[in-house]
């Protein structure tokens, strides 16, 4: 599908948000609260901040919430009565301000949640989500999207990608059918676009390592001592997996309050020491180096192999969240060097 | 800095230790833990005001424990953590060499836990000013304001347990949150579950917290959870006149009692 | 407001307070039926998480009661409990939990009348304070639709 280009002025953008809100859609955008910038619900564009490279947390919770009820059941005299999830209650969501890396992250989640079983909850939530991405005009040392087949102005994963150009106006690239439907519905807010050199408004993110070389050589690096070296300082906190836009591991538990029970899923991390513990007590990934290796290989070996997608978008959130400076970008550079040897 | 490097080199060269844990340069002007196993690596050790991580955490890390005798660069919080871990029988004096740092950051000559204890007795164990001020501020709020403050802050929590992972005193192999028979703490990140978790964690640290602040530093969402554990530090000091990590053999505060423990709320 | 009957949960030790409550019963002393007694071998067994859970599941008030100091059936259980409560009460108060809704007492096996008095007074007190909605409010926020 060829990408249509339009211009959306600041005023039109504000109007668009109001119209979408009036339609009953829930709108999420980056909001500053204290020192944290995260995706929060907004009613008007004024609440959104532009002062971010990426948000602290990823946007994955619009489709994969941090805590989600799967089903509920009650103990009654007649037995256990089950109540399935009400899919109609899942709201229509518009996600504004996702960076190109965030939008691309959903591709990984889509691949995982539609792999061997279709996850009805995730797919329903995602199908009701419209992503209006915003390109990156700045980056920092932790970013490495260009090393994993992304770039600061990539349209991959967005329904509409906005790039801030001059005078508060945006270049709007209408990427998907969902995007086209939205732009047509509010055609008055999307003006014709003259030729715009998008590149000059984008951040410059130099390529840090050759991802194809990493993909090719990572499996044979399984026994390389560098995994132990790299992970010595890791404290197994799980923060990286929780802020990552492509991490999808979850735990399921039943909660009981009185006679009401619900089955809930919540985020989990393969970095946790008990993640792989068996009921026998045996833990195949007993030490951190095994877990660290698994995390990187999942993204750069297993996912490419099974889902034909690199499981990392180079957003750098993991490195920013890490309190012991693990710095995934640096580790991947080192890995590429090891492989090249 | 030079004296730290020299001492670390000596320790490794003489095989007094097989590993020195210290601070080194990280990426983008950050500091990261340095594991020195070869004498020449000792030159990479640094110490400046960026060095705040509680290195004593690694004394409890499985892989590190098995590396042999360990030397550790130890500003005050690390020294206190080592003593607290010793008093909980988690580290042995024979396995560890502490490169203690004085209040002026100079390298001290502390050759036993007893000497460390004596040194700590000369140090100021007050909470950091910023946190103390915030605790006082919260204490001054009304009960409803405090509830709103904490439920608001903790609703952000995603139950990543980075706070627990970063804390050197949280070394339980199977934490209470990992038990589901019974399910004390709901696993999910709902406001109720978050309040339960953080209250429980703070209580389990009462009398053991050395106010290193790693919990808040590790939190990816800047939630000031260290204020909760610091509050217990104040309570334990006020009521039981004890500070964690001040002796290598100390009774565990909440596992012991005095017949004349005073309170004003039991009828 | 006058229709509100508070739910009071009492965590009591078997040897003193529970026996005291028994004495109140055998002496036919009437006291408020709002209280649900939970019997422990000793107050030292009472985990502070139980108090949180009681509030989370709808208790409006909590009574914790055991043997007088020096009278513990297990010698020192209540001393341990006392220390734990000192720490817990301050932390819970710091977090905004309404610690006025938690009543601590030492009630011996001979103090049946006193037990009844404590229950009656506390129940009336909670009745006038109203239901404890803080926990219920946050417990009801289930994030089934909550995104982010």
Into which percentage range does the β-strand content of chain A fall?
Answer: 15-25%
Strand order of the largest sheet of chain A: 3-2-6-7-8-9-1-10
Structural class of chain B: alpha/beta
**Element order, helices and strands of chain B?**
HEEHEHEHHHHHHH
Number of domains of chain B: 2
Silhouette of chain B: globular
Measured on Cα atoms, how large is the radius of gyration of chain A?
21 Å
**Structural domain count of chain A:** 1
Q: List the total number of helices of chain B.
A: 10
Terminal residue distance of chain B: 57 Å
Descriptive terms for the model:
heterotrimer, A: 341 residues, alpha+beta, 4-stranded antiparallel beta sheet, C: 148 residues, alpha/beta, Rossmann fold, 5 helices, 44% helix
Structure description:
The complex is a heterotrimer of chains A (341), B (267) and C (148). Chain A is an alpha+beta fold and 341 residues long. Chain A has one domain. In chain A, 29% of the residues lie in helices and 22% in strands. Chain A has helices at 10-22, 100-113, 120-127, 177-185, 211-217, 226-231, 239-243, 288-307, 317-321, 328-340; strands spanning 4-8, 26-33, 36-42, 67-76, 79-84, 93-98, 129-134, 160-164, 170-174, 191-192, 250-257, 260-267. In chain A, helix 5 crosses helix 10 (328-340). Chain A is globular and about 65 Å long. In chain B, helix 3 links the parallel strand 3 (70-74) and strand 4 (96-100). In chain B, helix 3 packs across helix 4, helix 5 crosses helix 10 and helix 6 (143-155) crosses helix 8 (191-204). Chain C is α/β, with parallel strands linked by helices and 148 residues long. In chain C, 44% of the residues lie in helices and 16% in strands. Chain C has a four-stranded parallel beta sheet with strand order 2-1-3-4, with helices on both faces. The longest helix of chain C has 18 residues, at 77-94. The N and C termini of chain C lie far apart (38 Å). The model of chain C has no long low-confidence stretch (mean pLDDT 91). Chains in contact: A-B, A-C, B-C. The A-C interface holds A 26, 28, 38-41, 57, 59, 61-62, 65-69, 85, 89-91, 93, 125, 257-258, 262 and C 57, 139, 142-148.
């Amino acid at each position: 599908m060829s990408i249509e280009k339009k211009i959306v002025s600041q005023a039109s953008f504000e109007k668009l948000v109001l119209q979408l809100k009036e339609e009953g859609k829930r709108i999420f955008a980056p909001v500053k609260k204290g020192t944290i910038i995260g995706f929060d619900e907004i009613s008007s564009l004024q609440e959104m901040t532009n002062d971010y490279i990426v948000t602290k947390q990823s946007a994955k919770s619009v489709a994969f919430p941090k805590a989600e009820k799967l089903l509920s059941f009650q103990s009654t005299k007649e037995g256990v009565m089950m109540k399935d999830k009400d899919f109609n209650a899942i709201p229509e969501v518009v996600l504004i301000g996702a960076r190109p890396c965030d939008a691309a992250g959903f591709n990984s989640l889509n691949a995982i949640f539609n792999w061997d079983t279709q996850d009805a909850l995730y797919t329903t939530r995602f199908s009701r989500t419209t992503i209006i991405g915003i390109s990156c005009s700045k980056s920092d040392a932790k970013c490495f999207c260009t090393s994993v087949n992304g770039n600061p102005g990539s349209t991959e994963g967005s329904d509409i990608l906005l790039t801030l150009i001059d005078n508060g106006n945006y270049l709007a690239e209408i990427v998907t059918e969902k995007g086209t439907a939205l732009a047509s519905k509010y055609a008055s807010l999307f003006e014709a676009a003259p030729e715009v050199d998008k590149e000059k408004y984008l951040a410059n993110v130099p390529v840090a390592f050759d991802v194809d070389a990493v993909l090719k050589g990572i499996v044979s690096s399984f026994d390389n001592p560098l995994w132990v070296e790299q992970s010595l300082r890791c404290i197994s906190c799980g923060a990286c997996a929780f802020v990552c836009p492509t991490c999808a591991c979850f735990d399921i538990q039943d909660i009981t309050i009185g006679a009401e029970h619900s089955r809930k899923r919540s985020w989990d991390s393969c970095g946790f020491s008990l993640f792989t513990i068996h009921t026998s007590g045996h833990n195949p990934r007993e030490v951190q180096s095994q877990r660290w290796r698994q995390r990187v290989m999942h993204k750069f070996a297993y996912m490419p192999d099974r889902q034909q997608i690199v499981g990392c978008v180079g957003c750098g959130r993991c490195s920013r969240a890490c309190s012991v400076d693990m710095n995934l970008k640096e580790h991947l550079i080192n890995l590429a060097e090891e492989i090249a040897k | 800095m030079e004296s730290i490097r020299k001492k670390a080199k000596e320790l490794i060269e003489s095989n007094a230790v097989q590993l020195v844990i210290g601070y080194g340069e990280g990426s983008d002007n950050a500091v990261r833990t340095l594991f020195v196993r070869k004498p020449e690596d000792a030159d990479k050790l640094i110490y400046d005001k960026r060095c705040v991580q509680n290195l004593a955490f690694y004394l409890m890390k499985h892989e590190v424990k098995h590396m042999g005798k360990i030397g550790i660069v130890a500003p005050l919080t690390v020294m206190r953590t080592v003593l607290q871990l010793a008093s909980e029988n988690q580290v042995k004096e024979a396995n560890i060499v502490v490169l203690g740092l004085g209040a002026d950051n100079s390298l001290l000559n502390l050759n036993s836990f007893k000497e460390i204890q004596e040194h700590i007795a000369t140090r100021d164990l007050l909470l950091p000013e910023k946190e103390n001020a915030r605790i006082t501020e919260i204490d001054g709020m009304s009960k409803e304001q405090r509830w709103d403050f904490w439920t608001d802050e903790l609703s952000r929590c995603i139950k990543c347990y980075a706070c627990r992972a970063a804390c050197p005193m949280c070394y339980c192999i199977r934490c209470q949150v990992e038990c589901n028979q019974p399910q004390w703490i709901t696993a999910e990140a709902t406001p109720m579950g978050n309040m339960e978790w953080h209250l429980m964690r703070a209580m389990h640290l009462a009398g053991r917290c050395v106010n290193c602040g790693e919990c808040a530093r590790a939190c990816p969402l800047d939630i000031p959870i260290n204020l909760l554990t610091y509050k217990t530090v104040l309570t334990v000091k006020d009521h039981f006149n004890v500070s964690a990590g001040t002796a290598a053999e100390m009774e565990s505060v909440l596992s012991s009692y005095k017949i004349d423990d005073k309170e004003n709320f039991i009828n | 407001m006058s229709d509100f009957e508070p739910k009071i949960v009492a965590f009591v030790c078997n040897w003193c307070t529970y026996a005291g409550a028994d004495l109140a019963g055998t002496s036919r002393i009437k006291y408020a039926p709002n209280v649900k007694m939970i019997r422990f071998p000793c107050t030292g067994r009472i985990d502070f998480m139980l108090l949180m859970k009681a509030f989370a599941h709808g208790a409006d008030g909590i009574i914790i009661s055991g043997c007088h100091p020096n009278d513990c059936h297990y010698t020192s259980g209540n001393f341990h409990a006392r220390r734990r409560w000192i720490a817990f009460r301050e932390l819970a108060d710091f977090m905004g939990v309404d610690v006025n809704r938690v009543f601590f007492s030492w009630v011996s096996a001979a103090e049946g009348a006193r037990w009844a008095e404590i229950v009656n007074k506390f129940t009336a007190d909670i009745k006038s304070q109203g239901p404890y909605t803080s926990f219920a409010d946050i417990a009801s926020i289930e994030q089934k639709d909550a995104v982010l």
